[in-house]
Design goal:
Shape: elongated
Largest sheet: 5 strands, mixed, barrel
Number of helices: 17
Radius of gyration: 28 Å
Number of domains: 3
Strand content: 15-25%
Bound molecules: 2-acetamido-2-deoxy-beta-D-glucopyranose
Number of strands: 19
Structural class: alpha/beta
């Protein structure tokens, strides 16, 4: 029972500590009220939360009516971040910034929802004497010992988020510039006010963690105290077995979501979360424990996510990000026809030069880079255009392959490259897999955000035997290429997730693992030339690719007739052409007009597609 007393002591002290934090920030608010802005939303977001809460209570609102609702706090932050333009001053959480950002300040995390950990209950509001207080947007649970009838249990969602897989480093520099200013301000502020209560919390946690009984619990695998007491959840901090290598190098984040419909946040979607950072251990206690099992579920989750490895973000506001949000130059810029045309020309020249002057390959590469799934009809992912660059030898791939890879990395925000060998297929974890022991979804290589680019380098493929893992992995790749779907492995069942991943294959032309949409024998006529691309040019290309690929598209009725009769004629000339080939031609038409910044197919662009296709087929002979 020693640990239990320790826990009670800890909670009591934590409550005192946050009370002192409260009074400290209350003082600060009074001070700042005199000088100017009422709330320091950046440095003391919880102060703003509390003041709006008190205001709502003072105006006669019943705390019970706040369940699942905003009492004005989120509105305040929305105004602050978007209307007052403070968003760019909010530091982005990453392995660098985590070293200096302070707990209980406002931060942003940009990442992909990798796993959903269910819901968590917490004491959302409680009466402290005659005063209502709230615990929303914080970890530390503080309320008077002994059960209180005046306590409201609320619910929040837990999302496990990771940096977007394959996110290229150039996407980050912008945020660092924006942050630089804030960081300096923050350091200054930090020097001025030493946050005593935070130190206190940390010391307390250490003390608590080193108690022998807690150690013992941890040795038993997890710190689940449910057999001894059902009113507490303790988070172990030393069990790092379940933090994978990738997680060590990049910073994941446990995002706690309030008051949001489930359908709004889905697996693999990319979001920016703005909220309150907490790094200290969660200690939750609940006297009115009516539903033990719901607590037990979360307990186990959190034990495997030590807060010093996985910071928590109590989300005030989230917004979905798309590729444009990762660019530096403003994506809001109207794509002017002349500008688009020039950018297209210069990008095409660049692609031609890295492809050893193979103009046809460069044109197809451009269309490929612009492709995306824009509709699903029955089982067909419309708009995808995977490209298979064949006839690359082991030697040429070391030159051209590297150039292509580097170039794609520089152009698109999220890129991955997999070396397709028999050994790779036999050993890789391509599909995400549910681990019921830890209740986590173990990421697989193919758990990717929409708009990711994947290079598959087949040139190292040797003959060998695929075992059952290899066969399964080959099947996963084939399904991704054909249907843009990935089957997630839930052990007892498979769950099919739709994807939007552009796939580029570099091959020698021997295997037959996955059929790409377009095969083009690569015919370089010169060495790959290495060119230094000015930063502005690079940014223009990124902006071009991100902007024109999202353009809408239509085919006017007169063009529709032309296209139809062309397709019929093509079919008559070559009986082997299937529906897929025809739909691929339409996709190429769409991409060709998009590449010129146009939204409806013109005769000129359609003819360009037909000519390109004729040249490609000639090469295949
Ligand atoms: C941040 O500011 C410092 C000094 O003001 C400057 O030297 C540094 O280059 C800046 N860093 C970034 C990423 O802008
Ligand atoms: C397949 O082969 C790899 C490497 O040879 C091995 O590590 C793996 O366990 C094998 N898998 C199966 C299911 O046999
Ligand atoms: C690429 O093309 C070559 C030659 O047609 C073929 O052997 C290989 O299987 C293709 N790979 C993919 C992924 O389509």
């Amino acid at each position: 029972m020693i640990w239990r007393e320790n826990l009670l002591l800890h909670i009591k002290l934590a409550a005192t500590a946050s009370a002192s934090l409260n009074s400290q920030s209350e003082r600060k608010e009074r001070e700042s009220e005199m000088v100017g802005p009422k709330y320091d939303c950046l440095a003391n977001p919880l102060g703003a939360v509390r003041l709006t809460f008190e205001k709502a209570i003072a105006s006669g609102a019943d705390p019970a009516s706040f369940d699942g609702k905003d009492w004005g706090a989120v509105d305040l932050f929305r105004q602050f971040l978007f209307e007052d333009g403070a968003l760019s001053h909010v530091p982005i959480l990453n392995p660098t910034t985590i070293k200096w950002v302070q707990p209980n300040t406002l931060v942003r995390f940009r990442g992909m929802i990798q796993d959903m950990l269910g819901n968590e209950f917490y004491a959302g509001a409680y009466k402290d004497g005659s005063v209502w207080r709230t615990n929303k947007f914080m970890d530390v649970c503080q309320y008077p010992m002994g059960s209180s009838p005046d306590m409201r249990i609320w619910e929040r969602r837990l999302l496990y988020c990771v940096p977007v897989p394959g996110q290229n480093s150039w996407t980050e520099s912008l945020s660092e510039v924006a942050m630089n200013k804030t960081s300096q301000q923050r350091e200054k502020r930090q020097r001025m006010e030493d946050d005593a209560s935070n130190h206190m919390d940390l010391v307390l946690v250490d003390e608590f963690e080193s108690s022998p009984s807690v150690k013992k619990m941890r040795e038993n695998g997890h710190a689940s105290p449910s057999s001894q007491s059902k009113d507490s959840v303790i988070e172990g901090t030393s069990n790092t077995n379940f933090v994978t290598n990738a997680e060590r190098n990049s910073l994941p984040c446990l995002v706690k979501i309030y008051d949001c419909p489930e359908s709004e946040l889905k697996l693999n979607e990319v979001f920016e979360f703005v909220g309150v950072l907490t790094l200290d251990s969660d200690v939750m206690a609940d006297k009115n424990d009516q539903d033990e099992s719901s607590y037990g579920f979360i307990e186990d989750e959190l034990v495997h996510l030590p807060p010093e490895k996985v910071p928590r973000l109590h989300c005030l506001i989230h917004r979905k990000l798309d590729v444009n949000d990762f660019l530096h130059s403003s994506p809001m810029m109207e794509p002017k026809p002349q500008l688009v045309k020039e950018t297209r020309e210069s990008l095409l020249r660049h692609l031609t030069s890295i492809l050893g002057n193979d103009g046809i390959a460069a044109h197809l590469m451009l269309l490929h880079l612009l492709s995306r799934v824009h509709a699903r009809i029955d089982n067909v992912a419309v708009g995808k255009l995977s490209l298979n660059l064949t006839c690359l030898s082991k030697e040429s791939v070391s030159v051209f392959g590297n150039q292509i890879r580097l170039s794609v990395q520089n152009l698109l925000p999220f890129t991955q490259c997999i070396p397709l060998t028999v050994n790779y297929l036999n050993t890789a974890s391509l599909a995400p897999k549910k681990d019921y022991q830890t209740n986590r979804l173990i990421p697989g290589v193919l758990q990717l955000a929409d708009g990711s680019h994947l290079i598959i380098d087949e040139t190292q493929l040797e003959t060998g035997t695929l075992n059952s893992t290899g066969v399964e992995n080959a099947r996963l790749l084939k399904n991704l290429m054909e249907f843009q779907k990935v089957e997630y492995n839930f052990e007892y069942y498979k769950m099919e997730m739709i994807a939007d991943v552009q796939m580029l294959i570099l091959s020698e032309g021997k295997s037959n693992i996955v059929p790409a949409d377009l095969v083009i024998p690569f015919q370089p006529s010169s060495a790959a030339s290495f060119e230094v691309v000015p930063a502005e040019t690079l940014e223009a290309w990124r902006w071009y690719l991100a902007s024109v690929r999202s353009l809408p598209h239509s085919i006017e009725s007169d063009m529709q007739k032309v296209v139809e009769s062309d397709l019929v004629a093509a079919r008559q000339a070559d009986r082997s052409l299937g529906g897929q080939d025809l739909s691929r031609l339409l996709t190429m038409g769409r991409l060709m007009s998009a590449s010129f910044g146009e939204t409806s197919l013109s005769l000129e662009h359609w003819q360009m597609v037909k000519e390109l296709e004729r040249l490609r087929r000639e090469r295949l002979k």
